[in-house]
Amino acid sequence: MPVDTPDMIYPQISRDLLGWYDRNARILPWRAPPGSPPPDPYRVWLSEIMLQQTTVAAVKPYFDHFTRRWPTVAALAAADEGELMAAWAGLGYYARARNLIACARAVVAEHGGRFPDSEDALRMLPGIGGYTAAAIAAIAFHQRAVVVDANVERVVSRLFRIETPLPAAKPQLHRHADAITPDERAGDFAQAMMDLGATICTVRAPACLTCPIA
C-alpha cells in the first residue's frame, strides 16, 4: 500500500470540503451559491468590512439597509458622511465606517468605480488589509488567494495539530492554509472553511463526528 503524502492528502481535503460546501453552504445575502458566477465585488467588500469583529446575525440588517440605500460603490462614494455614520450607528468600530466611504471614493476616483481584482491593488485601498484583500480577490474575482480568518485559523490548527499559540502560529497557519487551497474555486473553498469553523469546528464542543475533513 502506498503511504499517503501531503501531495495526495491536500487535494483530497479541498475536494471533500468543497463537496460538503456544495450541500451545506449557508445562505447569506452577500453570497453567490456554490459554483455560480462570482457576486458583485461591492457586496463582497461591504460584507467583509461589516463582518470584521461582528457577527453574521448583527450584520444582516445593516447590509440590507446599506445595499438598498446605496446599491453601488459609486452611490456610496457620493453619500453624505453624516447620513452614512447614522446608518452605521449600533454596528460599532466606527473607524470601519470612515474607511468605508474613503475606500468607496478611492475606487471611484482611482479605478473608475470598479474594484481592482488583485490582492496587491486591493491592499492599497483604505481599510483593506491582507485578509480582506484575499477574501475579495477569491470570492469576488475567483482568484486563487489564501483567506485566513479566525475560523480558518482554528480549523487549520486542529487539522494539522498545530500547538504553537497565536500570534506566533500565524505564519505556520497561513502556510498550511495555502497548501490546501485549490487553484480552482478558491472563493468557494474560502467560504467553505469559514462555514466549517462557524458551524462544525466551533470554539467549544466541535462536532468532529460530522466534520467532512476529520
Instruction: Give the low-pLDDT segments.
Output: 1-5
Averaging pLDDT over every residue, what do you get? Answer: 93
Count of β-strands: 0
Please identify the structural class as seen in this structure.
mainly alpha
Radius of gyration: 18 Å
SSE series: HHHHHHHHHHH
Principal-axes shape call? globular
Q: Percentage of helical residues?
A: 55-70%
Q: So how many helices? A: 11
Largest sheet: none
* Beta strand %: under 5%
Euclidean distance between termini CA atoms? 22 Å
Give structural notes.
The protein is an all-alpha fold and 214 residues long. It is 59% helix and 0% strand. Helix 2 packs across helix 3 (56-69), helix 2 (41-51) packs antiparallel against helix 8 and helix 9 crosses helix 11 (186-199).
Core attributes:
disordered N terminus; 0% strand; globular; mainly alpha; 11 helices; 214 residues
Write a short abstract of this structure.
With 214 residues, the chain is mainly alpha-helical. Helix content is 59%, strand content 0%.
Task: Record the SSE blueprint.
Blueprint: H1 6-24, H2 41-51, H3 56-69, H4 73-77, H5 81-88, H6 95-111, H7 119-123, H8 130-141, H9 150-159, H10 170-180, H11 186-199
